[in-house]
Amino acid sequence: MEESAKFLLISVILMGILSEAKSDAFTHKYEKGDPVPLYANTVGPFHNPSETYPYYSLPFCPPDHWEEKKGTFGEVLNGDRLVSAPYKLDFRVDRESQVLCRKNLTREEVSQFRTVIAQDYYLQMYYDDLPMWAFIGKIANGSPNGSRYFIYTKMHFEIYYNGDHIIEINHRTDPSFETDLTEDKVIEVEFLYSVKWKETTAPFEERTLKYLHSAILPRHMSIHRSSISYSFWIVLILVGCLVALYVRVLRKDFNNDEELADNQEEAGWKVIHGDVFRYPKHKSFFVAAVGCGTQLFTVVLSIMTLGIMGVFRPYDRGVLRIALVFTYAVTNIISGFSAVSFYHQLEGSNWVRNLLLTGFLLGGPLFLAFCFLNAVATIYGSTAALPLGTIVVIFLLWLFLAFPLLLLGGIIGKITKSKFQAPCRTTQCPREIPALRWYRGVLPQMAFAGLLPFSVIYIELYYIFASVWGHRVYTLYGVLFICFILLVAITALVSIGFTYLQLAAEDHLWWWRSFLHGGSTALYVYAYCFFYYFERSDMSGLMQTSFLFGYMACICYGLFLLLGTVGFFASLLFVRYIYSSIKCD
User: What is the DSSP letter of 398?
Assistant: First the structure.
């Protein structure tokens, strides 16, 4: 009782101290003259967003007191490395042509600046957690002596405040303060900056809206609406085709089955009723793929739900990546349960091996891709390379959270096992499949099946790529959610249609085929990577190229498992329905 009273007293004292703090970077409240945290983050080529380097990898003016901000787990995953910036932007203190430093740039430093200016390097800073960017210099073409390289030497900061809060910061380079770095010699440079404070009536709670508004322009919203409308009409057309199939074909087959005489033979999809529920080959691998797809479906829905709820705000450093890591780790219980449960339905015996296969089917390729790409980033000295400590944290997260949840899900799936619901009895000897034309093969049908779902997301795909592999801000999670639901619906409908055509040709090996039909859209998405790289971006270099195609290979592999699972379950429901409507011996 006495210890509880002491703890309560200490808590009250601490709350009182914190309530008296008027100048705090955490509460974002300041008084006139208070220092406001300004951190320099990274530099890098504008056209290679993934290729970022520490700010002081370039010979900028160093601060008087060097301080490296301890990054959160999300900031490290995001590639942020915040360090003290030399500029002094005290709250409501104006400065005019303040000297930052004077430097004699060596020939090597001049050459280094010329190189980064030629590659359109830009820098990023955070002032009171508000992001800002600026280019380092420019190239002046048209000179009689060829191109000339100039570095910007003066920054002008324009800061808006409301009461004791900072609302907005804008900064620009002064074109009248430039230094020519064309010649390969020692050059003296004087770096300056100015600060101007202005009062505004904008509330503190709305200070990030400007970043949201830049992503929701009327012209872009019109394009999003057109894309959703187009997708919706495709869904209606597909539903209409399936309704016509049911009314004109399936109902006729159902009625003929009731009137069928004993001496008449069945034909079409009804003749393979004794083989259609025969378990697929490599069922352990198949069940593991379905389990991973179910987990990824849950991950995508969870992330989109958080986005719609407003959890992810523009330039919240690493919040989305933290959500992805923890959501994937927690949902391992779903993959373990669904895989083992389905594995027992298919009369599998070695459920432990199947559980381990489920855990490594997606995690294994991700780990190998990460090792290669992180090694590339480390060789380049990029901030995109994760340090050893962060890698250890991720490993411990997998070892003590993801893997135990996978085992727990597998155990629950084993305990709650059930029998596979098949309306028709499977014969002992499989029926021979008749010879099929070339267009009924696996690859042609995958090409046809993936084209329509891809056309639905094609427009939205550009904005997603421009956000992930560019500088555009994506905040339309509601639109993204609608597109995802339409994609799932179209994938399911297309898979049902192709499964019926396969069964009508008396081909009963539909299990893997339905999975491949659904997942084939991911192949088109990966092909779009090449189109985006060569036609819609100016990316170059080994690191950026390997990051784009390496991580997109992982994403498309996950999309393949997700949509393949959707296609299989949609086909399974359809097959169960039509065969439960006929008489089976």
Answer: I
